[in-house]
Amino acid sequence: MKETLNKQYPPVQIPGTEVRPLTSKAVEGMEYQIYIALPEDYDSSSETYPVLYFLDAWAQFGILKQAYWLLSFFDEVPPLLLVGIAFEGDAQDFICYRARDYTPTKVPPEKLSPEMARFTPVSGGAPNFLRFLEEELFPMIETEYRADKSDRAIFGVSYGGLFATYALFNRPELFQRYLLGSPSLWWDEEVMFRQEEDYAKEHKSLPAKVLLTVGSEEDKVMTSTWEKLRDRMNSRDYNGLELASKIFEGETHMAVVPATHSRALRVLYSD
SS3 of 267, please? Predict the structure, then answer.
């Protein structure tokens, strides 16, 4: 038998990608790892590209990058610049950072269920994280890469979907395309519905292309609040809003992620 146990092999790498650190002033000196995937023709062209910003890149970069590559192989999506925001650390660090950055309001852990308290030791940092995107990450990407400032997307799932919803109703002009994947709309006694209500009182238009997704096998609170947001947004008849929705039959909260990214790429970049 050929001996392989002690042999060192090179790691698998994803071509056309790079990782850059970016330290934030808006978020307590936090050093983010920015995962970047360039379009295949980037070095041979002078074009500018739409930018897809996505959350939880530490867990989802490979999924989204390879889904994009497969779809672009047959021209089902246009060339895109993918920019993922990631963290460094262990599992507990990831839990802490994403809970802090993606939740729009502060809720003490003792006011959450025991299960959710484990995943949310800190909260309420979404305003600072949005400032990080606008004031620190966008300028870096749009200065150092051929990025189209007029065509940004944000993809978020779970707490990330909650953050994308927060951005939609508080600073909708920052992005033109939104994936609200399995958004945690139950957060803080459904605070996002109150923020949507406030937005609707002042605005008749919402110029954005939005995809709402959820798995049919997710917890009832996830599916019921998802339906509530879908119906609420449809009833508003916002000018300029292109809203699509998809329930993935048989998929759970985690299993739905790959299907969500594939569908979002095709739906949100169908124009």
Answer: helix
How big, in percent rounded to 5, are the helix, strand and coil portions of the chain?
Answer: 45, 25, 30
158 catalytic per annotation = yes
Q: In the annotation, is 218 catalytic?
A: yes
In the block, tokens 């019921």 appear at: 224
**Which residue in the list 218, 245, 251, 262 is annotated as catalytic?**
218
**pLDDT, tens digit, 9 for 90 and up, residues 173-196:** 999 999 999 999 999 999 999 999
Cα diameter, the chain: 73
Q: What is the pTM of this model?
A: 0.95
Look at residue 77 and give its three-state secondary structure. Answer: coil
CATH number of 17-268: 3.40.50.1820
Q: How far apart are CA 254 and CA 18, in angstroms?
A: 26
* Catalytic residue (one of 24, 123, 158, 182): 158
Q: Which of the four pLDDT bands, split at 50, 70 and 90, describes residue 5?
A: low
Report whether 184 contacts 158 (CB < 8 A). yes
**258 and 67 in contact (C-beta within 8 Å)?**
yes
- The distance of Cα 191 from the centroid of its chain, to the nearest Å, equals 19
Whether 253 sits among the annotated catalytic residues: the reply is yes
Residues 56-73: tens digit of each pLDDT: 999 999 999 999 999 999
Query: Which burial class, exposed, middle or buried, applies to 176 when counting CB atoms under 10 A from its CB (0-12, 13-18, 19+)?
Result: middle
Residue spans per domain, the chain: 17-268
Average pLDDT estimate for 191-219: 98
CA pseudo-torsion sign 108, 30, 166, 96: negative
